[in-house]
Design brief:
Blueprint lengths: L12 E4 L5 E8 L10 E10 L12 E4 L18 E5 L19 E7 L5 E5 L9 E10 L11 E4 L15 E5 L19 E6 L1
Parallel strand pairs: 5-10
Antiparallel strand pairs: 1-2, 2-6, 3-4, 3-5, 3-6, 7-11, 8-9, 8-10, 8-11
């Protein structure tokens, strides 16, 4: 289903482009620039969400721009709702990405716009797109760890994921872990218990 409007949700809606042309936006998680041919990078940013120990805050991960514009504010921590930068958590021998030095790096992101496509969706468990769809990018499904109090949405992180400059120190705030299939109600086969899932973002 395509939602109309502009930035209703950063990663899944259609937007009206210049001169009445249609278009679509999506977030490319793990990259500073959009990689699909003919796609415009609206802005580069950093992934941010709730703290992994939080019982509140937002559950949907955001791609925050690197040049915020402030409105009315009061400096200091008032104890309201919080948002934290996200890190890749890739320990215990799990290193599915091409870059093997991602652990504890801050997660990058880019908001992308295609003027020639009308819709997009994220396809979990496949790194290819259906016939008739073009692939914006592919990678691995990531989310918060299963036993953490905080939560974020399941996101498709580019297989060539990169971190931010100077973002390697371990802060353990909002965290991205590879998603593993678990057998039970999930049929095995075709799924394999404990195997990391791929994903793709598809355009049409």
């Amino acid at each position: 289903m395509v939602e109309m409007g502009y930035f209703i949700r950063q990663h899944e809606f259609a937007a009206r482009g210049p001169y009445g042309t249609s278009g679509v936006t999506y977030v490319q998680w793990g990259r500073k620039k959009c990689s699909a041919y003919g796609v415009q990078t609206l802005y580069s940013g950093v992934a941010a969400g709730s703290h992994y120990k939080s019982k509140g805050d937002g559950a949907n991960t955001q791609c925050l721009p690197l040049d915020p514009v402030w409105g009315n504010y009061k400096d200091g921590v008032q104890g309201a709702s919080f948002i934290f930068g996200a890190e890749y958590e890739l320990w215990q021998g799990i290193q599915p990405f091409e870059n093997k030095r991602l652990a504890d790096n801050d997660v990058t992101c880019a908001v992308c716009y295609s003027a020639t496509k009308n819709t997009q969706f994220m396809l979990p468990a496949k790194n290819i797109c259906p016939s008739g769809w073009s692939r914006a990018y592919y990678g691995y499904l990531m989310a918060e760890k299963y036993n953490h109090a905080g939560s974020n949405t399941y996101l498709c992180v580019d297989h060539r994921a990169e971190g931010t400059v100077g973002g390697a120190p371990n802060k353990d705030q909002s965290t991205f872990y590879p998603v593993e299939a678990r057998c039970g109600s999930l049929p095995c086969p075709p799924y394999v218990d404990g195997r990391e899932l791929t994903c793709s973002v598809c355009l049409k």
